[in-house]
Amino acid sequence: MRSKTIDKFVVASYNIYIIKQNNLIKSNGKEASHLGKRKKKDTKKELLEQKRIKFQIYESFTAIIATIVTMLLAIITAVLSWID
User: Fold this and answer.
1) Is residue 13 pLDDT above 70, yes or no?
2) Which residue in 51, 52, 43, 2 sits closest to 23, CA to CA?
3) Which residues of 14-34 are buried (b: 16+ CB within 10 A; e: fewer)?
4) Contact predicate 83/35, CB 8 Å
5) Are 69 and 11 in contact (CB under 8 A)?
6) Phi (first) and psi of residue 40, to 5 degrees
7) Comparing 12-16, 26-30, 41-45, 66-70, which segment has the lowest mean pLDDT?
8) What is the pLDDT of residues 30-68, one digit of tens each?
9) What b/e readout covers 51-69, taking b as 16+ CB neighbours within 10 angstroms?
10) Is residue 38 a contact partner of residue 68, using CB atoms and an 8 Å limit?
11) CA atoms lying within 13 Å on the CB side of residue 10
């Protein structure tokens, strides 16, 4: 059984993958084939979506790190109480 933080990380990674694939499809389209045309700027909605996904990744990393630190503290506490 996976934790919720790992699931959030997987979902965020998948969302980034989909966005990259969509950008690749757009860049290989007809509008990008002309040398004189510039690539379309991202809309505000797309930029907010990318920020939200990045925030999800950071949130999942911090949750994983907090879990690891908690486990290490529990191990250290158990070892110290066993020694005494």
Assistant:
1) yes
2) 43
3) ebeeeeeeeeeeeeeeeeeee
4) no
5) no
6) -65, 140
7) 26-30
8) 554 444 455 566 688 888 888 888 888 888 899 999 999
9) eebeebbeebeebeeeeee
10) no
11) 6
DSSP secondary structure, 21-57, as one string = HHHHHHHTSHHHHSSSPPPPPPPHHHHHHHHHHHHHH
For residue 81, which amino acid is it?
A: S
Residue type, 36: G
Residue linked to tokens 């911090």: 62
Q: Which two tokens stand for residue 47?
A: 């930029």
Which residues touch 8 (CB under 8 Å, ≥6 apart)? 56, 59, 60, 63
